[in-house]
Design a protein that fits this description.
alpha/beta, Multidrug-efflux Transporter Regulator, Chain: A, Domain 2, Rossmann fold, DNA Methylase, Chain A, domain 2, eight-stranded mixed β-sheet, three-stranded antiparallel β-sheet, globular
């Protein structure tokens, strides 16, 4: 069900444009906001947006009925760089059973073990793991490999060019298991990293180990029931001998956009309000006094000029908006993308109403972790696990499409046997 209206801020996030662009459209009469008592800028209705070319395709895709896949069997997976469990939880939600999860961070491993004692969690360096015992026993290899530096001065050796990087270890796991499919995620910057050379080398490596790479796609969390402006680049590969029988379709955008209120208050995502007394960072006294002056949805430019100069110091005189500094979130917008610490000066994530950083429980909800999922380690380690995670609901949206493709592979196998 679509909302009754979208604010300018939410619409800008959906379309990937700035608030200034939305304002310009309104001034030119290209897209005229409707009056609303609670919003000075006005709002935009779904009816308007379905007729507006920049958003029409989104709403058309939203209206296509999405089939819910019921797996005919349990699909087995291996996950590398598992972190605090966001990707694994999303995949579990739709029918994957992990045979192995690899992670080097001890606190993240403890998180996985605490919440899923039956999972086979291997703590340590992925390069030390032999994946050949799992050959032809898993359906999927997944993971979010860190984007390390690649060398391009050599001979364009594809798979060999990635040696020494963590992508090489991911590709080795795919090759050794001979899994029908793989799914990897990364930051959107991988698309253009080193003028596209990094992704070009990854493509070559994938082709060399016998897989077809589906054209990578940036998925926005807001279109998949994630109340956060988080984007991830997703790479999906299918083994060459199976690709003819294995169509893959990206999840369609859901235009019922969730906002911070949906994460922190009882409603469509959670049955209860987020606990206000959960563990979390605190502001030093003076910073708390300054942040108390920032209005909901505001940032450093909303402070009195003298306070701006005190808080920003030399940054006050530099160019750029720097709108992540002294930033207080808004109830009625998706959260800014979470980082590994909510009180960093460059990427402030202050509660919309209380003068403090988001706490651990609130952080986890914005990443759509269930409330019963508990994180291990000191507070800083917990924030890091959550900030680095793939949102659970985004993972589930992709995983459902992966299962849809694996079901096609199963049907093709049955026909070949007959």
């Amino acid at each position: 069900m679509l909302p009754l209206y979208y604010t300018a801020a939410v619409l800008a996030t959906m379309l990937g444009v700035s608030r200034r662009t939305i304002t310009c459209w309104a001034k030119k009469g290209t897209l005229i906001p409707e009056e609303h008592d609670d919003h000075v800028e006005g709002v935009y209705t779904p009816e308007q947006l379905t007729k507006f070319p920049p958003s029409a395709a989104l709403f058309a895709a939203h209206q296509v009925p999405q089939r819910r896949i019921t797996p005919t069997r349990a699909y087995r997976s291996i996950e590398l760089f598992a972190g605090g469990g966001g990707m694994a939880l999303g995949m579990e939600k739709v029918g994957f059973e992990p045979l192995l999860l690899c992670e080097w961070d001890k606190h993240a491993c403890n998180t996985l073990r605490k919440n899923r004692p039956h999972w086979n969690v291997v703590e340590g360096d992925v390069s030390a793991i032999d994946f050949t015992p799992y050959r032809n026993k898993v359906d999927m290899v997944s993971g979010g490999f860190p984007c390390q530096s690649f060398s391009y001065s050599g001979k364009r050796l594809g798979f060999e060019d990635t040696r020494g990087t963590l992508f090489f270890e991911f590709a080795r796991a795919v090759k050794e298991t001979n899994a029908p499919m793989f799914m990897a995620e990364n930051v959107r910057g991988l698309l253009t990293h080193d003028e596209g050379k990094t992704l070009a080398t990854i493509r070559e490596a994938i082709a060399e180990i016998g897989y077809t790479l589906i054209e990578p796609k940036i998925l926005k969390g807001i279109f998949h029931q994630v109340p956060q402006k988080r984007e991830r680049l997703i790479l999906v590969g299918i083994r060459n001998d199976l690709v003819a029988d294995a169509p893959f379709h990206w999840p369609a955008p859901n235009c019922d956009v969730r906002v911070l209120r949906d994460a922190l208050k009882a409603g469509c995502l959670y049955d209860t309000d987020a606990p206000l007394d959960a563990l979390g960072q605190k502001y030093p006294k003076r910073k708390g006094e300054i942040m108390a002056l920032v209005p909901e949805g505001g940032h450093w430019k909303h402070l009195p000029d003298l306070i701006q100069r005190e808080y920003m110091k030399k940054s006050y005189f530099l160019g750029g908006g720097k709108t992540g500094m002294a930033r207080r979130l808004s109830w009625d917008e998706p959260s800014l993308t979470l980082t590994c610490a909510p009180a960093q000066k460059q990427t402030e994530r202050c509660h919309p109403e209380l003068t403090r950083p988001l706490n651990i429980a609130e952080y986890a909800r914005i990443q759509t972790f269930p409330d019963e999922w508990h994180f291990s380690g000191p507070v800083s380690a917990q924030y890091k696990q959550i900030g680095n995670a793939v949102p659970v609901n985004l993972s589930a949206a992709v995983a459902e499409k992966l299962i849809e493709t694996l079901e096609c592979i199963e049907k093709a196998k049955g026909k070949n046997i007959d």
